[in-house]
Amino acid sequence: xxxxxxxxxxxxxxxxxxxxxxxxxxxxxxxxxxxxxxxxxxxxxxxxxxxxxxxxxxxxxxxxxxxxxxxxxxxxxxxxxxxxxxxxxxxxxxxxxxxxxxxxxxxxxxxxxxxxxxxxxxxxxxxxxxxxxxxxxxxxxxxxxxxxxxxxx
Length: 153
Fold this sequence. Notes:
By secondary structure, this protein is α+β, with helices and mostly antiparallel strands. The protein is built from five helices and three strands, in the order ααααββαβ. It has helices spanning about 1-20, 25-45, 45-50, 60-90, 125-135, and strands spanning about 95-105, 110-115, 140-145. It has a three-stranded mixed β-sheet. It is rod-shaped and about 100 Å long. About 5% of the residues are buried.
């Protein structure tokens, strides 16, 4: 690599000297043309050596590992957003609930767990609100009634 860079520098210096020494005329055009070809050959000279060596790049495995991490982060973030959105939605109706959502393999909602800390007793209304808000079937909503939050105990 170092020899290649030195040869490029030498060819450029030689070109500058030729430019200074050569008079303007027909011969100067031919010399400059030949010299341009020489510069191209010097710059391209390492390519045959690189092409003969074996290149072992396997981008598929690198892409898969990066892709898996991205998918997991995206899935987790979407889940958190939906949980907070649903919790806020229920709070608008006066329900003090925690919401836990599980996404399936197709990234659709597979199960929703609603934990109500109030004494509302209106289970069907909460299930209906959650199912309608998230546009899922009611059987995917699991309702749990607790007296107090664990932090309150």
